[in-house]
């Protein structure tokens, strides 16, 4: 139908971004508790080094490792120019000619 779809892609991206942010905020509290932090106990006495290490591990190192996995898998996802040409051909069969601006 030759409709533009940029708005749909942007809205889906925005939704996933908001979902990921909400998930991060929602999980940060349980992660701090999982690390062993208890505000009632540690307010006066200070936070022991092992709990600080656990918090660093869970809130900084773990996301870094997960991003590393994502980068690794995205780097090793094999797509060739022939794959792109075939996808473009199939889309043109369905919708008509695709401009070569991209």
Describe this structure in words.
This protein is mostly helical. The protein is 76% helix and 0% strand. It contains four helices and no strands. It has helices at residues 6-34, 39-45, 49-75, 81-95. Helix 1 packs antiparallel against helix 3 (49-75). The longest helix has 29 residues, at 6-34. The radius of gyration is 23 Å and the shape is elongated.
Task: Give the SSE map.
Elements: H1 6-34, H2 39-45, H3 49-75, H4 81-95
Taken from the alpha-carbon principal axes, the silhouette is elongated
| Backbone CA Rg | 23 Å
Strand content: under 5%
Q: If helices are DSSP runs of H or I spanning 4 or more residues, what is the number of helices?
A: 4
User: Low-confidence parts, pLDDT < 50 over ≥5 residues?
Assistant: none
Bin the helical content. over 70%
User: What does the main sheet amount to?
Assistant: none
**Cα distance spanning the termini:** 19 Å
Structural class: mainly alpha
Average residue pLDDT: 83
How many strand units?
Answer: 0
**What is the H/E order?**
HHHH
Summary?
The protein is 76% helix and 0% strand.
What characteristics describe this protein?
102 residues, mainly alpha, 0% strand
């Amino acid at each position: 139908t030759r409709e533009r779809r940029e708005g749909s892609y942007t809205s889906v991206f925005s939704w996933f971004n908001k979902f990921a942010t909400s998930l991060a905020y929602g999980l940060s509290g349980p992660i701090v508790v999982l690390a062993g932090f208890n505000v009632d106990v540690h307010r006066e006495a200070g936070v022991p080094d092992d709990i600080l290490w656990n918090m660093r591990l869970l809130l900084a190192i773990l996301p870094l490792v997960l991003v590393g996995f994502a980068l690794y898998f995205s780097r090793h996802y094999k797509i060739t120019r022939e794959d792109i040409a075939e996808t473009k051909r199939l889309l043109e069969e369905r919708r008509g000619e695709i401009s070569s601006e991209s």
